[in-house]
Amino acid sequence: MRKNIVAGNWKMNTTLQDAQALISEIVHMVQDEVTGSAVEVVVCPPFPFLSAVGKQLPEGGRFHLGAQNCHQKESGAFTGEVSAKMLQSVGAEYVILGHSERRQYFGEDDELLSQKLKAALAAGLKPIFCVGETLETREADETFNYISKQLKDGLFHLSNEEFDQVVIAYEPIWAIGTGKTATSAQAQEVHAFIREQIARAYDAEAALNTSILYGGSANAQNARELFSQPDVDGGLIGGAALKSRDFTEIIKSF
Ligand code: PEP
């Protein structure tokens, strides 16, 4: 079901102590200041801190735990890897898949991401599936083709029931960590396009029910304008998710 979601991707940042202090501040601020809206908050700390951070989240409320990646196999001789089932067993409900940093630095392609999606869904996790174009692609006027291919090859192999569990994040690569946010019109245009592609691949109901988040230098100053767009259902936040005041302000932007 379509929901407003703000997800914080902490990436490879924080120590256990930092993570515990950060989540404690976020929980207190959000509980004190966010009363009216039904926005869901997903926090995605590094693997070693999932359990500890999860224990600090109030039960049954708006807070949910997410991971930043998972392996495509359920278990086995894959030294150093973490399975979706392991994540689920420590309380994760979401997992980010297809983040551009995973695609770029770890060579994750659509075929591998398809397997990871299946593994996440089989373990009962909700994938936050990221798509987004490079600056070069945008300047060549190829954004729609590029996003459409990422969706088709990476995501649209899922059944209707599986797809129901998926959240999509549109993250233009040129906007991630650069301070260059997409304008609300640029975000809306691509979000509307993604919704149209979902309607074609599945049906109008699936398109209406899918939460599509914007990611890329979203912050306390621009979130309200971005979230006011009809097809923007929230944000996947990197840098600003590490600052409790900024993250809370973003959550308050609905
Ligand atoms: C991200 O990495 O998902 C992201 C959106 O980062 P930032 O907000 O720092 O641009």
From TrEMBL:
E.C. numbers? 5.3.1.1
Q: Which GO terms describe its molecular function?
A: triose-phosphate isomerase activity
Keyword Nucleus assigned to the entry: answer is no
CDD domains cross-referenced by the UniProt entry: TIM (cd00311)
Pathway noted in the entry: Carbohydrate biosynthesis; gluconeogenesis; Carbohydrate degradation; glycolysis; D-glyceraldehyde 3-phosphate from glycerone phosphate: step 1/1
Coiled-coil positions = none
- Its domain of life reads Bacteria
State any GO BP term from the record.
gluconeogenesis
The UniProt entry's GO CC annotations, sorted and at most eight, read: cytosol
| Transmembrane segment boundaries | none
The UniProt record lists the keyword Cytoplasm:
yes
Which residues carry out catalysis?
A: 99, 171
Q: Which Pfam families match?
A: TIM (PF00121)
Predominant location category? cytoplasm
**Which InterPro entries does the record match to this protein?**
Aldolase_TIM, TIM_sf, TrioseP_Isoase_bac/euk, Triosephosphate_isomerase, Triosephosphate_isomerase_AS
Which parts of the sequence bind substrate? 9-11, 177, 217, 238-239
Q: Which reaction does it catalyse?
A: D-glyceraldehyde 3-phosphate = dihydroxyacetone phosphate
Q: Where in the cell is it found?
A: Cytoplasm
Q: Which PANTHER family match?
A: TRIOSEPHOSPHATE ISOMERASE
Its job: Involved in the gluconeogenesis. Catalyzes stereospecifically the conversion of dihydroxyacetone phosphate (DHAP) to D-glyceraldehyde-3-phosphate (G3P).
The cross-references to HAMAP family, in alphabetical order and at most eight, read: TIM_B
Tell me its family.
Answer: Belongs to the triosephosphate isomerase family.
Assembly and oligomerization: Homodimer.
* Entry protein name: Triosephosphate isomerase
Its gene is tpiA
